[in-house]
Amino acid sequence: MTDRPGYPADAVLRTMSLRRRVVLFTAGLAATAGTVLLLQLWLTEPGPLPARTHAAFAALTLINMTWAGYAAWALTRMPLFARDRVIGGWLATVFSALTAVVALIVAAMRPSAPAFTVAAAALVCVALAILTLRRARARRSELLALEAAISQ
């Protein structure tokens, strides 16, 4: 018998749970499907679209492609110390903040739009994304401290 575990700290801390892999795979699949559907809708419009509509399609397609790329990266690279969660938190925060700003601008430009409901939903989404980012950063710090303790 030895004092050391059968697996190096590196191997234990780099692994990803099956649940996490399923979540990432599902997110990547949904983002890929969203990209395909948006592109199909955008490219098959029968008439000319306004510039704002082209910009919206382009932005939504880019966001979906980014999420699909993130999921593929996280599944193939075996993330180290929850780095994938921090990156996902940043993506969620940036994309939800941009979406909130655009939604608030559109709501302010249209007097019939329910501006209060849009503002409340946007703020809830941004708050949840920030909470996700904070939790991911805390978890990453915990794992780095655990790695330092195991390495000594």
Written overview of the protein:
There is one protein chain. By secondary structure, the protein is mainly alpha-helical. It has five helices and no strands. α4 (83-109) runs antiparallel to α5 (115-151). The longest helix has 37 residues, at 115-151. The two termini are 20 Å apart. The model has no long low-confidence stretch (mean pLDDT 86).
Brief rundown of the structure:
The chain has 152 residues and is mostly helical. It contains five helices and no strands.
Fraction of residues in helices? Answer: over 70%
Net shape: flat
How would a crystallographer describe the biggest sheet?
none
- Helix and strand composition category: mainly alpha
Backbone CA Rg: 20 Å
Mean of pLDDT:
86
**Helical region count?**
5
Q: What is the strand tally?
A: 0
N- to C-terminal distance: 20 Å
| Poorly predicted runs of 5 or more residues | none
Helix and strand run:
HHHHH
Features:
81% helix, mainly alpha, single chain, 152 residues, 0% strand, 5 helices
Q: What's the structural blueprint in terms of helices and strands?
A:
Layout: H1 9-14, H2 18-43, H3 51-77, H4 83-109, H5 115-151
